[in-house]
Amino acid sequence: MEKTVYKSAVSWWLWALVAIPVMITSIISVMDGELAVLLIHALVTLLVGHLFFTTYYIVEKNTLTVKSSVLINIKIDIATIRKITETNNPLSSPALSLDRLWIDYGKNGAVMISPEDKEGFIRQIMQINPSVEIKYRKK
Predict the structure, then answer these.
(1) How many alpha carbons lie under 13 Å from residue 112 in its C-beta half-sphere?
(2) How far apart are CA 42 and CA 110, in angstroms?
(3) Greatest Cα pair distance in the chain
(4) How many domains does the chain have?
(5) Can you tell me the distance from the alpha carbon of 68 to that of 132, in angstroms, rounded to the nearest whole number?
């Protein structure tokens, strides 16, 4: 099986929640001549923007790799995945959307991700490890 990269889904309202206050305070900083504050805002914007382009999930052979910038690089043996549960849990995780999958693996491992193609992701994991329990949200 070849390598498949799943981009993180993005909740644009979540991006707006960060971007709008930064833009407003940046405008105020420029009007007040506070260029140091503007520089800090620019750095925060670059960091958040970087996260948007570097948060993804790779399925290759028997390994799931969860990447988010240089901060997160988790490698999971797919054979150890016990359960995948749909969730909207807002806890911090390498996911850019609240439409998430909670993955239980190993003895006590867990991670939340938000692949754009959730169905394709689950299907591929199930091909590798058919014993994974899948729990969908009630619609």
Answers:
(1) 15
(2) 33
(3) 60
(4) 1
(5) 24
113's tokens: 């991700």
Residue 62 has pLDDT above 70, yes or no: yes
CATH code at position 13: 2.30.29.30
Q: Which amino acid is at 86?
A: E
At residue 106, the 3 state secondary structure works out as coil
Residue partners of 1: CB distance under 8 A and separation at least 6: 59, 60, 61, 124, 127, 128
Please, which residues bridge with residue 49 across strands? Answer: none
The dihedral through the CA atoms of 69, 70, 72, 75 has a sign that is positive
Kindly state the tokens that stand for 63. Answer: 């390994």
Q: Tens digits of per-residue pLDDT, 25-35?
A: 888 887 888 88
Domain that holds residue 13: 1-139
